[in-house]
Structures are given as structure tokens and as C-alpha cells.
Please model this.
Amino acid sequence: MHWTLLLHCPRVSPVGASRKAKTLPLLQPTLQNGFVLTTRTEVSLLLTHSVVHKQLLSLFAMSRQGIVGVPLYPSFGPGTLTSLFRTAKIRLVVADSNLLDKLLTAAEEVSVPLSYIVLIPGAHTKRRTTPTQKRRSAQLGITVVHWHEVVTNWTIGTHKSRSASLSATTTTTTEMTPVPPAKLTRDDMFIILFTSGTTNVPKGAMLTHHNALESFASICSSFIWKGAPETDQVHMSYLPLCHVFELCTSLAVTLNGSRIGFTSGVMARILSDIVELKPTFLVGVPRVWKRLQDKLLQKINGNSFWARLFYAHAYTTKAETEATGKAPWIDWDWWVFQTFRDALGGRVKTMLSGGAPIPGDLAAWMRRTFGVNVYQVFGMTEAFTAVTMSNAPYHGDGIVDIGVPSPWCRVRLVDCPDLSYLTTDEQPRGELMVAGPTLFSGYANEPDKIDEIMRGSEWLRTGDIACLNNDGTLTIIDRQKSLFKLTQGEYVPADYLETIFGQSPLVSQIWVHCESTDSFTIAIVVPDAPALIQSLGLDPNMTPEELCERSDANEHIRDELERILNENQLPRFMTTRGVILEAAPFTEENGLLTPSLKLRRANLRQKYGDKIAALRQSILRLDE
Model:
């Protein structure tokens, strides 16, 4: 594991890595002298998580010198990278060494101004560049150097550069000396954060140093830091740094004098990394929490009948004591749930969930099983902070609210008459809008796009439908772009259906689709193959492909979705009339998920269009 403690705050020092203490001061002169960069130059950071600690070091060094960081998802394809490099005018990239071929392919477009690539070897990647890579980079006029050359004395060779403003000069090996920090104003650019591109090409939100300071002050003054000394807090970083949730958390943790540990970069080992690090709080998205729940429940189901019964009784009893307020007759946390706490290192006290609404029963399971407070955080890239946070540690099994506005943020609800959401309803409902000093200043080189998301000069449109609860908190109930209107005039909230259907142990992934000319919905389901095989009593050696071809498996999934629909007392028009089972999961690699693990609905429609059309016709024939 990369157990690295960052240097931005004097109270934080590296453990077991004294050499890293020299990294930050060396980076600062290198970024200006070695690369002939000037203040306000955009530098892209494109790293896998095994080396993301160096991405954070680079970001600190660049911000000191007024150089603009542009973190990007390493899963972006060459075509997307070409567009983003052109949009943000990227001239230097700091990247994982195994991404070099992809970067060179993206740079083949003449309009891409890329001139330098700094390579960082990951935990499982090679350090040297191949002759082919050297030849390609030379033909493109791109200088490729390695991280260890940047943070030590570096000699730049003479070459033909594609950028006059970044032309390299022949130098001799000299000792790097620190340079004074750049003189910046509050309105200078700090970072460009690209959205994950759920519906179209990612857009780069431009965020200033003023936005950043207001955001960090808001987070650091929140309830999250209360209850423990600042230096005792330990954050486990495993989400991409280009995800605004992870970026704000990591920077706020450092600013607060707390510590950060980074995973080894292998997702299969994340639990063992957590046990080794022993963090005090974890951040994640509902999909991550669902995977954690499935993995632990799978272990429970593999135990003996009496062990399963003991766990079920302990969980039910703990839920009842929460509801009644009565003290349990036995310490279930010690007898049963301590094992689960130890699976997270034994020190986790708080879990922060963001990125999408977390199902209430999943939040309740996390709270009871791990004995922690689970907080819902709502934010977005363009707001660069947690817009709202839920600060009530205990909730029932219903939908978890997103809390109240964070410090420095203002929110309001606006009528959506077409969707019948009005602020004059008995429980006020409408589109959630945000205002405050953390809001972005526009999209990089796309000035006309800001009008699509801003209402006037002050209010940012989130696209989420929220309701105001009696206790003053807010709850997300819909999303405008995921609402589908059926032929009878009713609206179907696809996001919400996918969330509640995804709670089934038989469902690994699901996409809900409907046409405005239909009166029903259709679902593409990636089943949890082992769970579905066990539920049907089939051969455990059956492949997922064979399982998805079976009619009884399809019918069983339809019945499961119907059960969940009835259990949540949803109207009949939301019934899923048709199901298509898919053995292959939705992933970033096949283009069906964004890097932030959200569904790419347009890509899903394109991939499954023919199957959906055939299924729709068969359902319509039955209705004739």
C-alpha cells in the first residue's frame, strides 16, 4: 500500500518515506524552470489510483505557482482526450506510464497543443519507454520524461517542440533551487474539473482559488471533523482525484492537518488496504457501499445455519432497539458486529456517501453493522463543494435526506409545473438551485454552455427535484433528465426505480427504459449470477451466459422487480413489463458507465436498441 502523508500542512509529515519530503519543493522550480511554464498554464493530471498520491503532490506544487491543474479520468479514450486537450489547451501531461500509447494517439490531432509528458510508473507498470514510443513522441514533437527525473536534477535535450511558448532549451545538470510562489489573486484559476460525461462530451468547469478556499472552509467547519483531534483523522483515498467528491475531501483533509492513505490501486485488495491503514472515516458512492454489503452478506450466507440465524437475530434486535430507544439485553456490537468493524480496520466512525442518493435501508444496514454514523452529502462539480450535508446520525429505513445547506451555500426550490412539482404543495417540491461563493465561473472555452445551467447570474440549476421536509432538511425525489413520460401522461423516475431495484440481492446492475409511446417500462438487468442460481436451485457451475438464456431466470427477475415495486407501494404504471437479462456487466471499458459509475443512457439505448424494439413489439402484440 502507498501509505503517504502529504506535506501541504506543517503538522503532516510522511511516514516511512523520508525521501518524499523533498518532492514538493523540487517540483515547484521544475514546473516553472524545467518546462518553461508560466502562471496560468494548464497542466493535465491523468493517473491511475496506484500513483494518485503524486497527482496530489503535483497539484499542490502547481497551485503554489499559479499553474492550472486539470485532473482527468484515466479511463477516457483517445478521442475524448483529444477533445479535452483541445478544449483546455493542455500543453503538459503528468500521467501513469501505461497510458503513454493512449496519450500519443490522442496527440496525433494537429490542433492538440501537447508538448510534454511526465510519466510516473505505477505499482504494476514498467518504467522505461519502448523504441516505438520514443519514435512516435519524437515525430509529434513531444518530450517524454520520467517522474524521478523531474524531482531530481533534470537535463532537457534539444528537440523540435510543437509549442513556441514551451520550447525546451539545452541545460546542464544543476541543483534545483526553490522559487518564490506566484502572486495570485482570488480570481485566478485553480483547477479545471471535467464532468464524467453522462449524456455527452465532458465539460470543463473552471474553478478559482477563491472557489477552492470557500469550499475547504465550508467542509472544515462542518460537523464531520468534530469528535476527534485533527491529526487523529485518517482518510482512505480510493476514488479518482478527478471526482469532485474525492478531490474536495482530500484537499480539505490536508488543510485540516489530518492524514491521507492511498490504496495500492488494485480494487480487489481494497479491503485488505483498509485493514492495514485503519482509517477513521470513509467516503464513497452508493455503488461502492452496495458492493461492500454484497461481499459481506455473501460471507454470512456461506456460514452455518446457526451462524446465519444468530446474525439475523442480532440485526433485527438492534433495529428494534433503535426504534424503541430501549437498551439491548446483550451487547450485540461486541458479540456479532465487531467482526464487521474489524473488516474496516476497527477505527471507522463516520461514512460519507455522495454521488447519488443512497437507499435508506442500505444506509441503515451500514450504520447498524459497522456501528458508524452515515452521512449523505449532496454536491456537483460546478458547485465545487458539499452543497448540503445530513447531520442527523440516525435515520429510519426510509429514504435518507440530504440534510441542510452547508456553510456558505444557499439553496432554493423552483416550480416545475410540467412535472407537477410545485413549491405551493403541502410539502414544497421543485428543482433544487444553489448559490454561493463556491460556484464555478464557466466552462473552459465554451462560454455559451453556462447559460444552460445557470439561471441569471447567481443561481446554479442542479437538475434534481427535491422536497422540503418538516424538519427543514431536503430530500432528492427525482431528476429531471431521468424522468420519462408514458403515453397515459404519467412520469416514471428511472433513477429512483434503478436505485430501489438495485437493492435486490439478485440484481447486480439495472437500466430502466421506456418510450413515450408506451404505457410500460422495460429493464435491462445484469443479474448477480451466483445469487440467482442459488435462488433457482440450479447447477452452481452454470455460466452467466447460460443463466441469462433461461426463461425461468427471466421470469424470476420480473417477479423480484414486481415484489420490490409492491413493497415500496409504488403505482402500477411503474411496473416493468419486460426484462432483458445481460451476462456482461456495464463497465467504463464497454462505454456503458461513466468514470463516476453512472449509466450512459445514450450508449445503452444504442447497444440494446434492437433487443428493446423486439421486446416492445412482443408486449404490444399481447396487449392487442
Summary: Residues 156 and 512 are 54 Å apart (CA to CA). The two ends are 61 Å apart (CA to CA). Residues 1-26, 154-174 have pLDDT under 50 and may be disordered. The chain is about 35% helix and 20% strand.
